[in-house]
Amino acid sequence: MRVLIVGAGLYGSVCAHELTQGGHTCKVLEKRNHVGGNIFTRYVAEADCHEHVYGAHIFHTSSERIWNYIRRFAQFNHYVNRVKVSHQDRIYSFPINLFTLYQIFGVRTPEEARARLLAECVPNAAPANMEEYCLSVIGPRLYRIFIEGYTEKQWGRHPRELPADVIKRLPLRLTFDDNYFNDRYQGIPIGGYTAIIERLLDGTSVETGIDFLAEREALMSGYDLVIYTGAIDAFFDYRFGVLEYRSLRFERELVPVRDFQGNAVVNYTEATVPWTRILEHKHFDLSLKAESTLITREYPTAWKKGDIEYYPVRNPPNEALYRRYREEADKLTDRVHFGGRLGEYQYYDMHQIIGAALSLCKKLL
Ligand code: UDP
Questions:
Q1: What is the pLDDT of residues 98-150, one digit of tens each?
Q2: Which atom from ligand 1 is nearest to the alpha carbon of 162?
Q3: Is residue 146 in contact with ligand 1, taking CB distance under 6 Å?
Q4: Mutation test of ligand 1: which of 135, 166, 314 has the most ligand atoms closer than 8 Å to its C-beta?
Q5: Beta strands 336-338 and 2-6: pairing type?
Q6: What domains can be seen in the chain, in order of their start residue?
């Protein structure tokens, strides 16, 4: 088969690699002037580290199969994501764990912590939104410090107007374990993510700076199959309406100190600080050698057509709209496959993207 892959992010690149290995001829078209999608990294010599240009990406998975797969394309370091929260000039351990509960309530053991949480929380058998869910699990004090302000900044809506599911990504632990993820395997690729993408795309013809949708008829002709990883509503010219996303604005700063904040990620949870987090990239690479450091302040923004899509806003109206596009997409299934965060309108992590791309390729092969 001759396969056209639209988008050189992780999904498209895994497909390109698998299908090329399987004997098919792939061509990859990418709108930006670089490959890698939002996992793109670049080396910054002054700070001697790889910059996560479109936000922090920490690889984690519990699947041995996916872990073995990605390590064919890079070695990984032993980075473990241990986020700190800054709130009104205090630093807290996060995600909420026994040390956080010690910092806030003075409890010292899992039993004391459990009893204190039980006393704090507002029982609710059927929480109708994120706020009610949080109050029922952690109570008002923790909710106000850690969740309310951050979530309102992140999603542009109060947690009362959001479903609870996004917050369920975060662990809540009554031990001192402050690992952000529960997964068995975790790390950052030595040499950055772009090198992984380049290895995946090795042997595939790639063109960057191509706006597929602007000339899709001409570009699709001559191919047996298209794997499209752009936004599904854009593919159908937004005919049923526009799916909602959150976008991000990044302010990067090279600071002439060796270590700015002592950690890769510090979340700023109060509503009055306009950014949600500060990344310090050299900590991802576990390298503090350089005299300078690169930091990025991350500001969530409203998304409008033409902006980079980061987070799908999966609330009931958007879900319903997505289902209409999905029905249209299913009619094209012999010719076009829709995949990835934008093609499937899913809040996917990297390991899930790899899993989804490998299943598609298995089906096709
Ligand atoms: N969240 C929060 N406070 C924090 C970090 C996260 O309330 O300090 C909430 C917020 O609603 C966010 C969700 O938890 O959207 C998931 O956070 P995660 O860190 O998994 O988001 P990502 O890293 O994908 O942006």
A1: 999 999 999 999 999 999 999 999 999 999 999 999 999 999 999 999 999 99
A2: 11
A3: yes
A4: 166
A5: unpaired
A6: 2-74+185-244+311-364 (3.40.50.720), 84-166 (no CATH)
